[in-house]
Amino acid sequence: MRLVLRIVALALLVPVAVVALLGLWGASWSPSGWFALGCVALVGVALLFKDPKPRRGFAVIAGVLFAILIVVRVLGAGEGMIAMRTLPSGDSARWLARLVDEQDLALAGARALALRGRMSENERATLVPAMHAAYVDMRRDDVFAPTPVLDTFLRRQTPAAFDALVIEPRAEPKPNVPMKFGVLFLHGYAGSFTLECWLVARAAREIGALTVCPATDFSGRWRGQAAERTLQSTLDYLHRRNIHRVFLAGLSSGAIGASALIGRFASSFEGLILLSGAPAEGESGGLPTLVVHGSQDAMTPVASARAFAERHKATYKELPGGHFVMLTQRRDTREAIVNWLMRQTGYKTRP
Asked: Fewest beta carbons less than 10 Å away: which of 129, 130, 152, 284?
């Protein structure tokens, strides 16, 4: 029995040490992530004790601390300026959305992508640190922001019930000043991430716009009846909030999907924003359009974005970088979106 406990302890402590080292190299895990790692390490240490009394004591402490973490996250998520609704019902976020810090899942995925993904050496080196810096900034707006990631991985995003991130234009809306504008953002491959929604919302905030980011499945393919139903339900939510001047934005495959959907929904939108995903033969619905693309994008060709922009007379902004310029060049991407939105809405100065 003693040997079995030691084997289990090593099976816990070795992965914890590896994950901790990754968190110390290049980009740190979230505070919640470090806390959870500490709880698992305590359990591993407990199993190394020969005497059952301290073993039980350490295990109980670890269990209590882990329970506290879960309670704090579940109760705290969605209480800041980043909220989540389950549409079309409008219910509050499902509990899985509150359970983990998205930063840890996203950084793990970004590290794997940097090892295997199609990207330039420069983007491979800068993606993970840029993502970490963005999450640190996002936490200043909302410490326990909910995330749709787990529900997406479990295939729970359907037109009948899907997560929709809702980001208000400011922490405390001014009284008696109704919101005029909204931005509806479609995510790309791998599903909806709160960070991407927040990056778009930071720009939309400059015109006092509410940002809503619906979730579809992992593929991020915004096509067909399911995509149309999800888009319409999200528009209905904005209309219930008396917001009718809405811009449609999309990232990567979400941008390709936005171009595919806009023909049917053009009358519902003020303009189109395509980030790292403008298809050469795509449509704009005759709407004012902004295209932002990386000059070295290895996933969606920059030539396609240039051709789309030329064919539709779109405002075109090409940035140095690859497919992830919204992260690696987030200041310039935000500036491009803000300036374009201000021109479309008549804003001369920031509210």
From this structure: 129
The per-residue pLDDT for range 9-48, each reduced to its tens digit, is: 999 999 999 999 999 987 999 999 999 999 999 999 999 9
For residue 77, the one-letter residue type is: A
* DSSP letter (8 states) at residue 281: T
Q: How far apart are CA 309 and CA 7, in angstroms?
A: 60
Q: Which amino acid type is present at position 53?
A: K
User: Would you give the DSSP letter of residue 324?
Assistant: T
Secondary-structure percent of the chain, ordered helix, strand, coil, rounded to 5:
55, 15, 30
Helix 31-48 vs helix 2-24: angle between axes, to the nearest 10 degrees? 160
Residues linked to residue 162 through DSSP beta bridges, in sequence order: 87
pLDDT tens, residue by residue, 176-204: 556 789 999 999 999 999 999 999 999 99
Residue range 151-167, pLDDT digits in tens: 999 999 999 999 999 99
Name the residue with tokens 């619906």.
214
- CB 166, CB 210: distance < 8 Å: yes
Q: How far apart are CA 108 and CA 125, in angstroms?
A: 15
Q: Packing angle between helix 121-141 and helix 194-204, nearest 10 degrees?
A: 70
* CB-based contacts of 281, cutoff 8 Å, min separation 6: 308
For the record, the structure tokens of 100 come out as: 């983990």
Cα 145 off chain centre by: 10
**Which of helix, strand or coil describes residue 29?**
coil
| Helix (H) / strand (E) containing 271 | strand 271-275
What is the per-residue DSSP string for 125-160?
HHHHHHHHHHHHHHHHH-TT---SHHHHHTT--BTT
* pTM of the entire predicted model: 0.92
